[in-house]
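JOB MANIFEST
job_type = single_chain_structure
chain_count = 1
residues = 114
[input]
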Amino acid sequence: VQLQASGGGLVQSGGSLRLSCAASGNKDSISFMGWYRQAPGKQREMVAAITRLGSTRYASSTEGRFTVSRDNVKNMMYLQMNNLSPEDTGVYLCNALTGGMAYWGQGTLVTVSS
């Protein structure tokens, strides 16, 4: 499985961004997909996740502001991020689980200015 994240950029505090993750390869077996954030000097953390059937889970810091969605036909996952704050700055990586293996994309940088 190959994952390609896109959509990052520079945005002002309070603004919005929409990230996309395209899956290719053995994508039909992907059960669980998630967005993770790697901020400078911090551990990688899960910000949102979604199962193949559409059940979602969020970090407490992102719930109510971020919305994860998935298009199984297009093999895409999205992350709508609203009301962004400087604390949301980091590299956002998409993750997929299939066959007991975890796959990672290369990440897309989100920078939120105050």
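[summary]
The radius of gyration is 13 Å.
The CA atoms of residues 2 and 94 lie 10 Å apart.
exit_status = 0
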